[in-house]
Amino acid sequence: MTDLLQLDNVTVRFGSTDVLRDVTLSVATGTVTGLIGPNGAGKTTLIEAVMGFVSVAGGAISFRASDLGGLPPHRRARLGVTRTFQSVELFDDMTVAENVLVAGDGSASADVGLVDSDQRIAGDLGPSERKTVALARALAGRPSLLLLDEPAAGLDRDERERLVDRIRSIRDGGTTVVLVDHDIDLVLEVCDRVIVLDLGEVVYDGPPARVRTDARVTAAYLGGARSDTADIGRDRQFEPASLPELVHAHDVSLGYGDTVVVRNIDLDVRAGERVALLGPNGAGKTTTLLALAGALSTVHGELDVLGTTKRHAHLLARRGVAHVLQDHKVFTSLSAADNLRVAGASRRRREQLREQFPALRRVWDRPAGTLSGGEQQLLALARAVARSPKLLLIDELSLGLAPATIVELFKALADWQSETDCAIVFAEQHVEHALEFADYAYVLNAGRVVLEAAATELRRQPDLVTNAYLGRPQAPQSRHDGD
After folding, report:
1. Alpha-carbon gap, residue 15 to 13, rounded angstroms
2. Distance CA 396, CA 377 (A)
3. Where are the alpha helices (DSSP H) in 107-222?
4. Alpha helix (H) residue ranges in 255-396
5. DSSP 3-state of 213
6. Which H helix or E strand runs over 414?
7. Do the Cβ atoms of 390 and 321 come closer than 8 Å?
8. With contact defined as beta carbons under 8 Å apart, do 428 and 397 qualify?
9. This model's pTM is above 0.70
10. Residue-range domains of the chain with CATH
11. CA 433 → CA 59, 60, 212, 409, 461, distances in Å?
12. What does DSSP say about strands 259-270 and 245-256: parallel, antiparallel, or unpaired?
């Protein structure tokens, strides 16, 4: 079997950061190759490098043994390389048939179950149908290599099965496929070979059957061994049953427009409790936090936050919900102290925060834009708790930070919470840190809760979490059993 695509020591650099680092891999003709990895691994960047949308700082990319270096995207497409995008962009004022025809052979519609004379307006289609049209358009140029970027995102089970059939049919029709998706089950089901990226490097390249048992893959998804985590919450004793319930979600589904991304979840949080939301990128963690903050409406189901079902962020903020976003927004031209003042903290409260978060002392008068990522995240955290919330939502406290900084942040958070009855719900990519800090954890995968249990239980049985991440959940008894 010959190699259709070859990457040799490819490096892609954004500023001073290597997003891909000396990546070497090959894709054999007539196969489906899965490309997976955690958030920030470099998967989409690799696709864009192959297509010519980003420049290669080192190494070479060849297609059919010819160097693609220097060729613009449209020239690569003419050679037989095409892709789909995570964000489906169609000509919404044109018909389905016109959307496909503009890219080449209109008969490609039939390859994905569409009629080549389909006169429906693209703007009137639902999310799944839009993805189907985008796939037909990618096939309209009759490519030799098709790069699929998150085609299963937002699909329900029936739609997912149709996608599996289509990918196999595309391969059997002579088109080689590279599949990027966070649905691990789908990737392992349909792919002949799997490549795993972590922090821009290849950590696994081999058969699907061995992915789940590879130590490097587990470390990539779950964060690997971390140092100095024992004192961020492991010895904490928490008995939630007698405490008031602050969040109750039953059979809740969430989405954006017509796209449902979280399906039928149950979730409860009590005063003073620490609840972790875990799972691979795209699982629905951020979406769940947005709904709890009132920034996203429910598609259906029952969601009560701080005693109200009204879905307005400003009302929930007044009731006591605070939200630390993933990109830790701060006022970069203001000092740390002034960032807290703008957040509504009185002089006395600012002094309390400086005592509660000692690391703020060394940056107190410095412009926030000059602070490190960890210092900005600490400031964002302090700003969120400035008004003594009842429910604190945190999205990826550790994102992009060094292990020692992560531990420092969790310790600061634990020290602050020990003096309050505030509940904390947090999404976190470093599983070991999360389970040391949390009282209870929910693991989401492809928009569904696939595992929930006390954090102590999951620390004792780490394979439960690993299997949940990699699509093989075996859930112990949950607090919802018997409801």
Report:
1. 6
2. 10
3. 127-139, 157-172, 184-190, 215-222
4. 285-292, 313-319, 336-342, 347-356, 373-384
5. helix
6. helix 403-417
7. yes
8. yes
9. no
10. 3-80+143-222 (3.40.50.300), 240-469 (3.40.50.300)
11. 36, 38, 21, 11, 15
12. antiparallel
Q: Are 452 and 440 in contact (CB under 8 A)?
A: yes
**Whole-Å CA distances, 118 to 94, 99, 100:** 11, 10, 10
- Quote the Cα angle for 459-460-463, to 5°: 80
The counts of H helices and E strands in the chain are: 16, 19
With a CB cutoff of 8 Å and minimum separation 6, the contacts of 137 are 90, 99, 100, 102, 103, 108
Distance CA 294, CA 369 (A): 29
Strands 298-305 and 321-324: what pairing?
A: unpaired
Residue 304's nearest CA partner among 252, 355, 346, 356 is 252
Tokens, residue 54: 């980003």
Mean pLDDT for all residues in the chain: 88
Rounded CA separation 64/483 (Å): 59
Torsion of CA 414, 415, 421, 424, to 10 degrees: -30
Calculate mean pLDDT across residues 415-429: 90
Angle between helices 403-417 and 347-356 (to 10 degrees): 130
Q: What angle do CA 15, 17, 20 make, to 5 degrees?
A: 115
Cα four-point dihedral sign 148, 154, 160, 162? negative
- Work out the pLDDT band at 29, boundaries 50, 70, 90: very high
Token output for 273:
């409790």
Q: Are 397 and 377 in contact (CB under 8 A)?
A: yes
Count the residues in the chain.
483
- By the 10 Å C-beta count (0-12 exposed, 13-18 middle, 19+ buried), 473 is classed as middle
Question: Which pair of tokens denotes residue 470?
Answer: 């990699």
Tell me the two tokens of residue 182: 């966070």
Give the model confidence (pLDDT) of 106-139 as tens digits: 888 888 888 878 899 998 888 788 999 999 999 9
- Alpha-carbon distance 293 to 313, whole Å? 6
